[in-house]
Design a protein that fits this description.
By secondary structure, the chain is of the alpha+beta class. It folds into 2 domains: 166 residues, no CATH class; 227 residues, Immunoglobulin-like (Sandwich), CATH 2.60.40. 38% of the residues lie in helices and 30% in strands. Strands 1, 2, 3, 6, 9, 10, 12, 14 and 17 form a 9-stranded mixed sheet that branches. Strands 8-7-11-5-4-13-16-15 form an 8-stranded mixed sheet. A hairpin with a 2-residue loop joins β15 and β16. The longest helix has 45 residues.
Length: 437
């Protein structure tokens, strides 16, 4: 048994474990930096405006009912028959240090139609007041509110929702004598928010359209658009939702989902909308890269071991460790650079630096410029393969399996004539004599 080769393989296995632990440390650093970024974004949003959910208009009837010696509440909300909404999102960015938050200013028009309302009061019930109610999850974002009725008359909205189940927003008083006639409200609203915008399809029939110059939308909520157009110039999405899809009046029920900004209050879950996502999140990409780091480290150590076998040059375990750390440092460089440049540029700089360092170090170890060039080209191809894995998320498994197969096939081909029993044997050690049968 070739003990030298066995010891070398055991040493390589120990070094691989050490390097994988170092990779795990870099992965935790990615999570730490992402948490810092999220905290900075949340801080900006807390001072500007959170993600927004727009509800209404709804008709809020304040009612009380006398039962023996007590008075109970019989108030209720009434949905519109038709609600048409159009909106545009103007997206901007705010920075805190090196971190940025994505903000928007929504220009909305909401056109709601209500049939004549019959309160259908029981003898012991009293109708006290009626209000039009609009819900806005973070009223700090309200920049302009202009409401008109079917006659074009400008109405006077007031802050708050006048005791309705919708906790935040604004309301407009409606004289009780006007309940028996149909109504139409046209609301023009400018609303600031961050990250995500949602509408609630409350009416019997809902028709919403949303546009923006942001070219990377992620449609959120329970309903995808019926039609959508996405290009480098932005997106245009259109929803049509009726009461059958929202389960009728149950859309008015609240859920146990807390509001985005951490309040204990709840908001509607039957929503549609859009999130303004980052198409190339440096932390997501770097995290995905570190997931392939163990394979990268193994291929790095294996590549030099193969050169050692083919060139009959003995490398010290510490030299292997330095080579392995050169591969690990790539991921740390990638994380640090991607916070300041685009991910692609950071990847190119980190890959070029580490490839050059490994190739020049290999020149000294292998004592051959030709071997150094081959080594550099090999690691350049390895970095290129890793980037393809990151860029092709849907085909990552296929590409990873193919890369592993190719590397294994090349290794088997290059070592097909090696005498493994003779590798690592001392130069003056006697060879076993040939024993004829």
């Amino acid at each position: 048994m070739n003990r030298n080769l066995t010891y070398k393989l055991l040493a390589l296995a120990v070094m691989a474990l050490v390097l994988i632990v170092a990779l795990a440390g870099i992965a935790s650093k990615v999570d730490e930096r992402r948490a810092t970024r999220d905290a900075a974004v949340a801080s900006i949003a807390s001072q500007y405006a959170e993600s927004q959910q727009v509800t209404g208009p709804l008709l809020w009837l304040q009612c009380s009912e006398t039962r023996k010696q007590e008075t109970v509440d019989c108030s209720r909300l009434i949905r519109p028959d038709q609600l048409d909404g159009t909106g545009g999102l103007a997206v901007s960015e705010r920075y805190r240090g090196i971190y940025k938050a994505r903000l928007y200013l929504a220009s909305l028009r909401m056109d709601a139609g209500f049939k004549s309302v019959d309160p259908e009061l029981k003898p012991n019930q009293t109708l006290k007041a009626a209000y039009w109610v609009f819900g806005v999850s973070d009223p700090r974002g309200l920049k302009r509110v202009e409401i008109r009725d079917q006659h074009g008359k400008l109405l006077a909205p007031r802050p708050g929702t006048s005791g309705s189940p919708i906790s935040r927003g604004f309301h407009i008083a409606l004289p009780l004598e006007q309940l028996g006639q149909p109504h139409r409200l046209v609301a023009d609203i400018e609303l600031a928010g961050s990250g995500r915008f949602d509408w609630v399809p409350l009416a019997e029939n809902n028709d919403f359209r949303l546009r923006s110059a942001w070219a990377h939308p992620s449609f959120s909520g329970l309903y995808l658009p019926d039609t959508r157009e996405i290009s480098a110039k932005g997106f245009d999405a259109h929803w049509r939702i009726n009461a059958f899809a929202t389960d009728g009046d149950k859309v008015l029920e609240k859920t146990a989902r807390p509001l985005e900004y951490g309040s204990e209050e709840t908001w509607f879950s039957h929503t549609l909308g859009v999130s303004l996502v980052d198409p190339v999140d440096a932390y997501v990409q770097t995290d995905r890269a570190t997931r392939y780091g163990f394979l990268f480290v193994l291929l790095t150590l294996g590549g030099f071991f193969l050169f050692e076998l083919l060139k009959r040059r003995t490398l010290h375990p510490l030299q292997y460790l330095l080579i392995g750390f050169a591969a690990v440092v790539f991921f740390l460089l990638l994380l640090a650079l991607s916070e300041h440049t685009g991910f692609l540029l950071a990847y190119l700089i980190a890959a070029a630096a580490c490839t050059l360092m490994i190739a020049l170090y290999g020149r000294t170890l292998l004592d051959s410029w030709k071997a150094s060039v081959v080594l550099g080209l090999g690691y350049g191809g390895l970095f290129g393969g890793l980037y393809l894995l990151l860029a092709s998320e849907d085909h990552a498994l296929l590409l990873g399996a193919s890369l592993t197969f190719v590397v294994l096939a090349v290794t088997m081909y290059l070592t097909r004539r090696l005498d493994w029993a003779d590798l690592g044997r001392a130069a003056d050690a006697p060879r076993p004599a040939f024993q004829p049968e």
